[in-house]
């Protein structure tokens, strides 16, 4: 399959994620747990069969970074899934997609990486767009969701945690093949989400068939056919092409929310979201 077609399919698959979360009536942390668990389980036999030697070469330092990366990913999923309970799909998906902005900031603050003028402009533009999205509707009195400001804050926290996942796993990804990397990090993520579910006191069983189908859909669509294919595409396409293509997720999710959930974004969300996407584009194109 050509990488370009695979990338288009992957962006379409991840765009469905927010809709499936909205369709679920289970607690958000439970949906996130099964999303990651069901994504990881099919990969374990492949990893053990084909990459046994790579697992043996994983050192203590790699395990530390894998643990940090997996915990950050768990917090990303938990926060983002919960954000969809409080704000619009358009706002939540756009804000959580802003993780490249926080990756650039984190690389500058923690790794002393150089911030170019283009990156600085991109970060500034994205932050301005976030302010328009989060405060515009509040001041204008037109709200989509029970508490958009809280939901937007959760989505932003999810973006920060996604950036932490990328930064913590950057060196590990360079030394491990895709499948072993995903299994190790997703394994830590699964355990972390299980801990969150237990702490929150939610049951792990007793959900109707409809919920299990949603959990499976989250794993197969956004999980296996989404992010896994995106990681595969990075080995065949320029990273800048992949980064820009991912900006299609908020657009796709917004259209799907309008068609399937009858959820029309407000003017401030559309304008602010457009500004955020421009900022993300400037940031990603400045780092690739």
Largest sheet: none
Q: What is the ordering of alpha helices and beta strands?
A: HHHHHHHHHHHHHHH
First-to-last CA distance: 25 Å
Number of helices: 15
The helical percent reads: over 70%
Radius of gyration, in angstroms, nearest whole number: 18 Å
Beta-strand segment tally = 0
Class from helix and strand fractions:
mainly alpha
Count of domains: 1
Whole-number average pLDDT?
A: 87
Low-confidence stretches: none
**Strand proportion:** under 5%
Shape: globular
InterPro entries: EamA_dom, EmrE-like
Organism: Halorubrum tibetense
Domain EamA: 5-134, 150-284
Protein name: DMT family transporter
How is this fold's topology laid out?
Blueprint: H1 3-15, H2 17-23, H3 28-40, H4 43-50, H5 52-56, H6 60-83, H7 89-96, H8 99-111, H9 117-140, H10 148-175, H11 178-200, H12 209-233, H13 239-245, H14 248-260, H15 267-287
Describe the structure.
The protein has one domain. It is mainly alpha-helical and 288 residues long. Helices cover 81% and strands 0% of the residues. The model has no long low-confidence stretch (mean pLDDT 87).
């Amino acid at each position: 399959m050509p990488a370009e077609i695979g990338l288009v399919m992957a962006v379409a698959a991840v765009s469905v994620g927010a809709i499936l979360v909205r369709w679920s009536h289970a607690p958000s942390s439970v949906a996130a747990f099964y999303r990651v668990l069901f994504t990881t389980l099919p990969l374990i036999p492949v990893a053990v069969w084909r990459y046994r030697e790579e697992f043996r070469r994983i050192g203590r330092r790699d395990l530390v970074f894998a643990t940090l990366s997996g915990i950050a990913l768990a917090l990303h999923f938990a926060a983002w899934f919960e954000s969809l309970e409080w704000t619009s799909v358009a706002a939540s998906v756009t804000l959580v997609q802003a993780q490249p902005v926080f990756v650039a900031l984190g690389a500058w603050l923690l790794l002393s990486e150089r911030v170019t003028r283009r990156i600085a402009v991109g970060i500034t533009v994205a932050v301005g767009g976030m302010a328009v999205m989060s405060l515009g509707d509040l001041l204008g009195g037109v709200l989509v969701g029970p508490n958009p400001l809280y939901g937007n804050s959760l989505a932003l926290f999810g973006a920060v945690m996604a950036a932490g996942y990328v930064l913590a796993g950057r060196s590990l990804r360079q030394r491990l093949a895709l499948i072993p990397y995903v299994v190790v990090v997703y394994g830590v993520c699964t355990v972390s989400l299980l801990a969150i579910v237990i702490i929150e006191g939610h049951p792990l069983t007793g959900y109707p068939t409809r919920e299990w189908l949603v959990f499976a859909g989250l794993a197969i669509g956004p999980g296996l056919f989404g992010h896994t294919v995106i990681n595969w595409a990075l080995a065949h396409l320029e990273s800048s092409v992949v980064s820009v293509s991912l900006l299609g997720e908020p657009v796709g999710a917004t259209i799907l929310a309008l068609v399937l959930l009858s959820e029309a974004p407000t003017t401030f969300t559309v304008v602010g979201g457009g500004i955020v996407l421009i900022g993300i584009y400037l940031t990603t194109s400045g780092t690739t």
